[in-house]
Design goal:
Helices cover 35% and strands 19% of the residues. By secondary structure, it is an alpha/beta fold. The strands form 4 sheets. Strands 4-7-10-11 form a 4-stranded antiparallel β-sheet. The longest helix is centred in the N-terminal third of the chain and has 16 residues, at 17-32. It binds glutamic acid. Glutamic acid binds at residues 8-10, 42, 206, 220, 224.
Length: 289
């Protein structure tokens, strides 16, 4: 099977050294294996995304010597595929509307008699405030102004999944990682699959997009390790293949903190303007051989 990987930034700011590392690693692997490297713009949230950041992404990647092998996929052009998938889960009674704000969730979790909240990939595990306690069909999918959560207990009780993980920068060995339904229920909880405004969440879109682009190997930071469990559950629900997940270490600042888009000081374009070459960037991120 041809190796197919991707780099999937959101056009919400300048790419920094952490992005350069992830994109170069994925691109190098694709070239090494005679595979394909694809580019996807995760631009579903049109309020935060901007054309000027898209142009910067193209410019930075091109300057780094990165070429993508198919036309760029944009989430904003594929909204129907996310909505169809939401309809499908809704019809199977696996979703419910949720009107809780972040503050509501925190106050429910800090109420007396509440057991200690665990933290999942998206923050504190949802306490279930809006979860319906009967199995009645909820009628038509609400069109707007509410989030939709997946009922994880209904979706994953008694299930066991696996995914293959490869850790870069350590031993590079592939391992089977078990994902147990009980662990998802306790430590992930009912996550959001659609945000207000009927927009697919990151988890929903990334799974559908990886399948649509026939990605065989996802290469991304190890901060997404626990989110991968969510993705494996969604792949099971939609009957989609699970790619191999390669997790790499994160490029950090001098205090050991992960870089964020607001860390403009590490922006690729600033290094370029200061006279650095693409090879200098490779050296800075430790990709020299
Ligand atoms: N847009 C996501 C990010 O930049 C992509 C994560 C992924 O590779 O799945 O963090």
């Amino acid at each position: 099977m041809t190796f197919v990987t991707r780099f999937a930034p959101s056009p919400t700011g300048l790419l920094h050294l952490g992005h350069a590392y992830s994109a170069l690693l994925a691109h190098d692997m694709a070239r090494h294996r005679n595979g394909k490297f694809l580019l996807r713009l995760e631009d579903i949230d049109q309020q935060r995304c901007h054309q000027k950041w898209e142009e910067c992404i193209f410019e930075d990647l091109t300057w780094l010597g990165i070429k993508w092998d198919e036309p760029v996929r944009r989430q904003s052009r594929n909204l129907k595929s996310y909505q169809d998938a939401l309809q499908d889960l809704w019809k199977r009674s696996l979703l419910y509307p949720c009107r809780c704000s972040r503050r509501d969730i925190l106050s429910a979790l800090s109420a007396p008699h509440t057991s200690n909240a665990s933290f999942g990939p998206d923050g504190p595990v949802y306490p279930g405030t809006c979860r319906p306690n009967d199995d009645n069909q909820l009628g038509l999918i609400p069109d707007d102004n509410v989030a939709l959560r997946l009922n994880v207990a209904k979706s994953a009780t008694g299930k066991e999944f696996n995914f293959v993980e490869c850790r870069h920068n350590t031993d590079g060995v592939k391992r089977e990682i078990p994902v147990l339904g009980g662990d998802l229920i306790a430590n992930v909880g009912d996550f959001v699959v659609s945000r207000r405004g009927y927009l697919g969440s990151y988890h929903l879109c990334v799974v559908l997009d990886d399948a649509a682009q026939r990605i065989t190997d996802v290469i991304r930071g190890q901060d997404l390790f626990s989110a991968t469990k969510i993705h494996v559950l969604l792949q099971y629900l939609f009957d989609l293949p699970t790619p191999v997940y390669h997790h790499h270490t994160l490029i950090t600042d001098k205090d050991g903190k992960r870089l964020a888009k607001r860390d403009d000081a590490r922006a690729i374009s600033l290094y370029r303007e200061a006279g650095a070459s693409p090879d200098d960037i490779r050296e800075l991120v430790g990709l020299t051989d």
